[in-house]
Automatic annotation (TrEMBL):
This is EOG090X09QP. InterPro entries: DUF2358 (IPR018790). It holds the Pfam family DUF2358. It comes from Daphnia similis.
Amino acid sequence: MVDKPLLLECNQKVLGKHYTAVSLQQHIQANDFVRQFRTHRNICLGQDQMPDYYLSIEDDQLQQTLVSMTVDQPSFSAYFCSQLSCNEKLLLSTGDTPQTSSNNIENQGLPSPSQLQHVFDVLSTTLPRLFIQPMNYQIYSPDVVFENRIRGTHTTGLYNYVKQVALLRCVGHLKYAYVRFEILKITQHPEEGTIKVRWRICGISGLKVLFQFWRYKLWQWKEVLQKQESWYDGFSTFHVSSKGLITLHVADKMMPDDDKATETNKGILAAKLALLLGLLPQQNAKNLSDVMENLLINSITTTGKSQA
């Protein structure tokens, strides 16, 4: 008879190994797509995708992020379109939705215990996979309000919410060879009809991976990640209505519990990760990690061919 704790530990290692491999693969594919599109333009993308899902980049912070990655806007728009799932394309093709007043949100009533539990279960499962799988948007109201206090933005409608999540996923994979959304704590609050999540986004750039690649096996990158300071903590509150749907998502900054002094980051990688969320201005238009990411991609491709 197999010991259950041992079996659980083995399953976690397998899942961790799989996630690391998928994250690295998507990072390589993302940078390869951008290089090819920059050279050949629409050849790399289906003819029916660009007109329908073309991304207009008007956000100044996103533009600065693309400049720091030396990625031009047409290439990023094409990559963004290519990464949308069928459901995301459907949601984005419907366009924006009418504005909903805050009073309507407050007067929608509380969810039942089973409804709150369902949303809790879905968030617990899907949030950690945010960077490698599309979110389950069935638990969100069509006129969901996203109050992003991290960036100081306020949007209404599932269209805008889906677009922001997809943008975060795309930027994460272009910039980081390993990027992950971790749930540090998630709780239900039936008296408020809310679910509160303390989360952390962690990442390792191509530069760091290149330096550590030969020292660690693929599934040991979690150990590398724990030694780095490339992370950003946050706190989200999801308000669930009597219909069992999320009507309001409030995202806040949050300092780590162990050492508040680390909020003023000492490493360049953490600054880049904060930039991914639009928290800090970019100081340098170009950096060495972009070059090293290309070297990483080429080295892995060469290794794969030699083994074949």
